[in-house]
Amino acid sequence: MKQKTMMKAEWDWQTGRRIVADLNQWKKAYGYVEVPVIRPDGEGAAAIVRTDEAEFSIVSSEGLWEGRWDKIWKLRYGADHRLSALVAEMGAWSMAVDDEVWEESFDFLWTPMQSSDGRHMAASVQQGRQYAGVLDGIIWEKTFFAINDLAMAPAGDRLAAVVQTVALQEGDIEKFQSGCFTVAVNGETWHQNFVNLWDVRFSADGLHVVAAARSSLYDYTVVVDGKSWNQRFDGLWEPLFLKDGRVAVPARSGGKWQLVADGSPLWSRTFAQLWQLVTDPVSGNVAGVCAPEFGKWTLVADDRVWGLRFGDMVMDPVFSPDGRRLACTGKNGNAWTLACDDKVWDHGFEQIWAPVFSPDSAHVGCRVRDKGRYAVYVNGKAVVSGLDFAWDPVFSPDGRRVLIRGVGGEGDLAGKVFREVLEIG
């Protein structure tokens, strides 16, 4: 049964802590318990458990599912709080949603994905040595020799993927170079084949599809709705639809990377590297990870480069909701940290996840792992630490409170999955 997606304003934002599941009890009852998942609002948790020697099921805050399977994979909650997983019985794979399995089963399923509201679910599928996409249990009418880079439209009603339309024998180099791959949208292919394609993406309205492509062994271009740019480059990273409908992409020519939009330079500056583009949700301006010089990493926004430099890596650029702030994760040596507005936090960690801004853009937080323990930081300060596991923080709509979801690591909280709402100091 489908549940209505709850808006964050409808969540319980009263300060305080509540236990939503006890992993100790689950382990005592089932022995084998995988890492749990938690609902977006923190009101429930679930985990894959072994119910017999070669039999698995799913236990949640609401109890144990009736279904039993040989294998379970990719357990997750959707935005509508439905719980789903890929399941296999006697070698046949399907998707289970709230203990109900799709009517159809397949030889294999992978890359499960959900629409932003959780209503639609999809995956890549293999059936009889043929490949396709499957949406809400319905497989494409047309199948192909291979499939990868599955993408879902924001509304969840369309799928696109790179597909192989020409059979290849091992070592058939000439046929490979002539082009055996294209993009299929809901099973319907573009009219042109390429050496290969990758980074398939939908536009925000779901009406257009873009992909990076190799038109030959050495020439790269961008393809939008089956039509190639006239320009050719030495290399490309992931293309991105801009707010005005143009497509931007980091492109390499003459040994330098540059931001290109619809085939023409968007910025005057060039880089040793440029990738991971994001757009300002208000103005539509572009930012990305760049290396102004070899081995020095930072962010660039609207052709302006940060002064901050990292020696090893920069990842996860994120704009604030008002578009005025920009954050990322960065690594120097063995230490990861977060940088925001061209300033770096004082703390370093073994591992760090992508920054999360509050809706009012006033606060930025993330989850981290250090010395084997998890913590959640907001504005550079730990709000909770010493956990066995943690999920990303979630800020209240007014930005005054933060929801912490984690597994306690000591004391009365040890082994307990909990939610806690805290005031932001």
Structure characterization notes:
It is built from two helices and 43 strands. The mean pLDDT is 96. The longest helix has 8 residues, at 23-30. The protein has 425 residues and is mainly β. It has a domain at 349-424. The strands form ten sheets. Strands 1, 40, 41, 42 and 43 form a five-stranded antiparallel β-sheet that branches.
Question: What are its keywords?
Answer:
globular, 6-blade_b-propeller_TolB-like, WD40, 2 helices, 425 residues, mainly beta, 5-stranded antiparallel beta sheet, 3% helix, WD40 repeat protein, 43 strands
User: pLDDT average, as an integer?
Assistant: 96
Shape type: globular
**Into which percent range does the helicity of residues fall?**
under 10%
Please state roughly what percent of the residues sit in beta strands, choosing from under 5%, 5-15%, 15-25%, 25-35%, 35-45% or over 45%: over 45%
- Taking all Cα atoms into account, the compactness measure Rg is 23 Å
Q: How many beta strands in the DSSP annotation?
A: 43
User: Major beta sheet, specifics?
Assistant: 5 strands, antiparallel
Structural class based on helices, strands and sheet pairing: mainly beta
Span between N and C termini?
40 Å
Question: What is the overall number of helices?
Answer: 2
Give unreliable regions as ranges: none
